[in-house]
């Protein structure tokens, strides 16, 4: 299975409409891939809090339209990263979209763990409530966004819901890049799953982005890693390795502490 992680750079001087079209062009260039993934809040920038209100869109707004067309044009499953969604009741969400190779929306995931403590995203946006998985022909994706990566119980819930490939779209800052690499590998090892973690490049509201998108296999081995600049990271991986790893080293069967039943959307 071939995955392409598009580590797009966010330039504050680039108009949002232009970046949408540029992202669509990058997706179009990945024809032949099975899965293409974009990072968190690439239309506006993950740390550009002052722009969230102005750049918010309805679920089926311009980002949805452009990305649906890009998925269909390239014939790929497209994890379109996330954008600022304005719900019908006016609440803002950090929302991820996934499209089929026909351009149909397969899933929407609202970020559960909002970053910022008492400012920024944490106070400006609503929190999602549902764990979301997406069944592809050869693997089941579990969706997560940036700060979610620090909460292992969420990923265990995704695995309990059938996830075999954990996709993390992020706008992770350079100053905590060591945590990004460590946590991506930890989530892969503890869940015996692939982790596809895609960050962005450039600078979001003065915050330098870490880049270094990474693909980790179920044993915690790094299959591929990007640098700091805009880049498309493409890797071949074998989804069957998840079941093989869990059979060879059946640690998940030895769990003693369970979770409260989560709300799960399976598509």
Automatic annotation (TrEMBL):
Gene3D superfamilies membership: Carbon-nitrogen hydrolase
Swiss-Prot/TrEMBL keywords: Hydrolase
Domain CN hydrolase: 1-239
One example GO MF annotation: hydrolase activity
Keyword Hydrolase: yes
Alphabetical list of Pfam families matching this protein: CN_hydrolase
CDD domains: nitrilase_5
Keyword Nuclease: no
Domain of life: Bacteria
Similarity comment: Belongs to the carbon-nitrogen hydrolase superfamily. NIT1/NIT2 family.
UniProt-recorded name of the protein: Carbon-nitrogen family hydrolase
Protein species of origin: Streptomyces castrisilvae
